[in-house]
Design brief:
InterPro entries: GlcNAc_PI_deacetylase-related, LmbE-like_dom_sf
Largest sheet: 8 strands, mixed
Structural class: alpha/beta
Protein name: LmbE family protein
Strand order of the largest sheet: 3-2-1-4-5-7-6-8
Number of strands: 8
Pfam families: PIG-L (PF02585)
CATH superfamily: LmbE-like
Helix content: 25-40%
CATH class: Alpha Beta
GO molecular function: hydrolase activity, acting on carbon-nitrogen (but not peptide) bonds, in linear amides
Number of helices: 6
Order of helices and strands: EHEHEHEHEEHHEE
Number of domains: 1
Low-confidence stretches: none
Organism: Thermus thermophilus (strain ATCC 27634 / DSM 579 / HB8)
Length: 221
């Protein structure tokens, strides 16, 4: 495998790296997505009972992964933390979520040993938005990848981690990325919030490759 995206929740893969996954596939690379939770703390929007949300979100992810044409998809079942200030009908969530489960490092490493990706794409150490699951996933992925794969961060264009690679998505890729995002129907309010706050991040994806300097227009692979 060439590129494995390691993120905490279903939908993170499409928002942050949908374009990268599609462009990598077009370039002939083998791609994969590993999510560490089933996203049970997300909103239901009345589309399913709260107790059914984990399985519904897994099915949404499967459909999104098919649109993104990934070669490998796996969903682990570590707990999903509620985001700060969360309101409204949501699925079950207890404790501190993913941050309470450092054993996830070994679970990730086991899969890296089997899949042997060249690159692991995950959130930066600050989790890009401070969500405790994002921060934990980043830490676990970095620790698991030591000596096995090059870690790359998906970052904000104005964040603390300088952008070293920028992908401007062609229309055909943007169209498929939007189709992938649309599969996450239970998270439609998150989609709308993203569109309101960061519309440009739909067609432009930015990344930080540790050790690289300057800005390159194009992929890191």
């Amino acid at each position: 495998m060439d590129l494995l995206v390691v993120v905490p929740h279903p939908d993170d893969e499409s928002f942050g790296a949908g374009g990268a996954l599609l462009l990598a596939k077009e370039a002939g690379l083998k791609t994969g997505v590993l999510t560490l939770t089933r996203g049970e703390a997300g909103r239901t929007l009345g589309l399913c009972p709260p107790e059914e949300l984990p399985q519904v979100r897994v099915e949404e992810l499967k459909r999104a992964a098919a649109v993104l044409q990934v070669d490998y998809l796996e969903v682990l079942d570590y707990p999903n933390a509620l985001p700060e200030g969360a309101q409204g009908e949501r699925g079950p969530a207890t404790g501190r979520g993913l941050a309470d489960h450092p054993e996830a490092v070994e679970a990730i490493r086991t899969r890296l040993l089997r899949l042997r990706p060249r690159f692991v794409l995950t959130f930066p150490p600050d989790g890009i938005n401070g969500h405790p699951d994002h921060v934990a996933a980043s830490r676990y992925a970095r620790e698991a990848a030591q000596g096995l794969a090059q870690v790359v961060y998906l970052v904000r264009p104005d964040g603390p981690w300088p952008v070293t690679h920028r992908l401007r998505l062609p229309e055909r890729v943007l169209a498929r990325k939007l189709q992938a995002i649309a599969q996450h129907k239970t998270q439609a309010l998150s989609v709308l919030k993203f569109l309101e706050m960061f519309p440009e991040r739909l067609w432009t994806e930015t990344f930080h490759l540790p050790g690289a300097s300057g800005l390159r227009e194009g992929p890191w692979w």
